[in-house]
Amino acid sequence: xxxxxxxxxxxxxxxxxxxxxxxxxxxxxxxxxxxxxxxxxxxxxxxxxxxxxxxxxxxxxxxxxxxxxxxxxxxxxxxxxxxxxxxxxxxxxxxxxxxxxxxxxxxxxxxxxxxxxxxxxxxxxxxxxxxxxxxxxxxxxxxxxxxxxxxxxxxxxxxxxxxxxxxxxxxxxxxxxxxxxxxxxxxxxxxxxxxxxxxxxxxxxxxxxxxxxxxxx
Length: 217
Ligand code: G3P
Known about the structure:
By secondary structure, the chain is of the alpha/beta class. It has helices at residues 10-18, 29-35, 39-49, 63-74, 88-99, 112-120, 130-135, 140-154, 168-177, 186-193, 196-212; strands at residues 2-6, 24-26, 54-57, 80-85, 104-109, 125-128, 159-165, 181-184. The chain has eleven helices and eight strands. The two termini are 36 Å apart. Bound molecules: SN-glycerol-3-phosphate.
């Protein structure tokens, strides 16, 4: 399973890249706004920190302007993945960019039939938002299970990128279902490392080791 980090904070991405566990980055207009930086500048910096795909989202809503924005964004670096919303114009843009060899991430997916359309439009990634579905009392993971089944039925190459994951249980459930990618806030990735028994066990080992008076080096 690939791990992407969902942020436009360059220092956080740099720290995540150092773990050796980072496979890519996702951003969205809200995350770019939160960074307070110019989009082209921050995307270029992020692309230099990872060889994996870096999602940069268009902000137009009509096909012609979305396509122009997508072409501009993919020119920033070879690992830019253009993100488009799951609308009719967005999927038309997806098809045009995919036919030119551009990686496209179709975002704001909330139903399995939307995911089916994105795969047919040649998306490299589909981003179902599990946390936002949970927020309104629907089960985000049921959507992931449905998409996994549909994509398997037809052999689609589109990768399922579980987005809006809020905690380690989302990552566990997505991995059990065989989703290809999970994108997470840096705090969620850090939470994956943690277990109270690991901490308690390490404390005990170190206390016993100290009693020996030895040192390995
Ligand atoms: O980048 C898309 C998605 O991961 C956003 O998550 O937490 O704003 O619902 P969230």
